[in-house]
Amino acid sequence: MSTIAPPAQDSAMSSQSLTQSGAEVLLRALKDQGVEVIFGYPGGAVLPIYDAIFQQNAIRHILVRHEQAAVHAAEGYARSTGKVGCVLVTSGPGATNAVTGLVDALMDSIPIVCLTGQVPTHLIGNDAFQEADTTGITRPATKHNYLVKRPEDLARVVHEAFYVARTGRPGPVVIDLPKDILIGKAPYVSAATAPHRSYRPRTEPDAGQIARAVALLKSAKRPVIYTGGGVINAGDAASAALRRFVRMTGFPCTSTLMGLGAYPSNDPQFLGMLGMHGTYEANLVMHGCDVMLNVGARFDDRVTGKLALFSPGSKKIHIDIDPSSINKNVPVDVPVIGDAARALEALIAAWEADTAKPERAALVDWWKQIEIWRGKDSLRYRQSRERGAVIKPQYAIQRLYEITRELGRETYISTEVGQHQMWAAQFFRFDQPNRWMTSGGLGTMGYGLPAAMGVQIAHPDALVIDIAGEASILMNIQEMSTLAQYRLPVKVFILNNQYMGMVRQWQELLHGGRYSESYSEALPDFVKLAESFHGVGMRATSVDELDDVIRAMLASPKAVIADICVDQKENCFPMIPSGAPHNEMILGPEHESESAGITGDGLGLV
Amino acid sequence: MTSADPGYRSATISVLVDNEAGVLARVIGLFSGRGYNIDSLTVAPVDDGGQRSRINVVTSGTQMVIEQIKAQLDRLVPVHRVSDLTQLGPHIAREMALIKVLAASSEKRAEALRLADAFRVRVVDATVESFVFEMTGSSEKLDSFVELMRPLGLAEVSRTGVAAMARGTTVI
Q: Least CB-CB distance to B78: which of A143, A198, A323?
């Protein structure tokens, strides 16, 4: 990709007769980029694009009910397919509504191209109707953004935007399109084949660093492999290489929230998720390891806990495609910059070629210790089976998982944000990548329903479930209407505890049980709400009703809201309180009061 | 992070960027959004066609923060190269300033001119009650001249910020 226009393009404006409008050129470029679906919402500034969409059949448009949902839907589409998600919104409020989705995609490294309408170039800066400084507003919300001011730049910019969105560390890219550019004629150019003039992400790992990493891993007595969303983003090859490498080394493996599914959850070498609500064994392994291999994770604060006490005795190897992730939070000993798949494949080759013997005996002892930690059964909870007993939220997800597994259908899970999200991460177990859609970095309530919508568009025959809370779901509930319009049989599984549960939990643990504004007052009747949106509503209020409701939900050919009324006071454990290190976990309600890290420093952290 | 922390240092970073709309905002936004310091910043096109600009940033932080700043800058799409001149080896960092001194008394006027001469500072404008001096040099040298002018009737200072380049054959 080059900005220096090839000769053909220079002459395009003068000699080649221009027959296509900017909007038509845009659609042609999208089609050439393999776009099949656009999630969007029309408005004045983008009417020329909608007119061009009307006159073609190659690209399908999905009409959402709010622009934020368009971006989340595109994220769900992107994360479940590995393709770039495409969004189209109008100028001003269309663009500003999309911003939350863009930041969400930025934080979770999801490839998105978002087309925003803009007032005509001669009106920019005049406070015209529905004008906003979209490139200014979205600059810190995107990986990159463009304002197209000349017709001859249009096609090139679209191709470049897709290239930037999907390569390197993926992310959202905005193209701001003034209306006169869309209406006027524009030349078409194909995607350039030359390297980009300045943007050149590094994907091939350095052989010397790989060799150092292997030497360190071979000498490890208490190793751990800690994987993140980068493995998912690097595609199926990365997950396959990870599985091979974990098995050939015999090392324990843990994953961040974003990385779930890259390594099969039911495998004995998998320790479960790590971090604030991760398992006891995963966190103690991180704390006590002597060599840590981080693949595609970024030492996020939800994972590290108190930085000064994070994994104090370990040598750290960090594989990341983004050089700025290296040494950002945690200093590492062996940085490896590159694509996770390429780096893991290089590690496998170097491990096999290296003649040094791994520390087998020490590894056996390490596993003995791990099994002791695992014996704590940190995800345990008590579910009464008596008739009429209240449903524990963990049990609801466990049954949902078991029953979907019995059905054997291809299943995709999205979540909103809060307690239900953590329980879903703990109790719904994934064997494959790209099956788990959740807002990790930004923690966006209202993500799950539109994301599920995007997944269902990409996988029409799959089972797509949004595991939700009653508070989060209301943040984008209008998308039930989109589900109805496109007959998308998304299942919304609400764990309804009538509280913003995670807020309530923090208020209980950190603010003396003063539940300020965290009660979900005046909730709708979710059964009637589903019905009013042409879906099916159902409810379970006691443990004996749960399985029937889950089965009925999964059997329905329509969109369903299942209102699962769960224990209002259940807390999400285990938990590392903010500001505490990994070895100071609260395992359950019985330990709440004895936690050292619960006050002081932690109170000021998020 | 404070300047008392061990390893806290100043860094002069040169960034070669595509001269496209918004590129300076991207760089400045990165510094403000991530809480990095900007002690000085200059920017101007540096090639014939005006296609590329060079941004010189003087910043400060711990080694880890400075490495992070460089990595974050390098991640911006229109950035071609990021060079830490402070780390690259010996380098020249120069600033230009226009300094206005209002002095009516002949003693102060004479003293200001004497000092200007000692600092090799040029007079670029003069009236019976004022001088405008033009001065080029390191930021520290500019600071000390400005301080000397203060009791002599310093009225206004306009500084360009630092332009920097590696010494010898090194090219960024």
A: A198
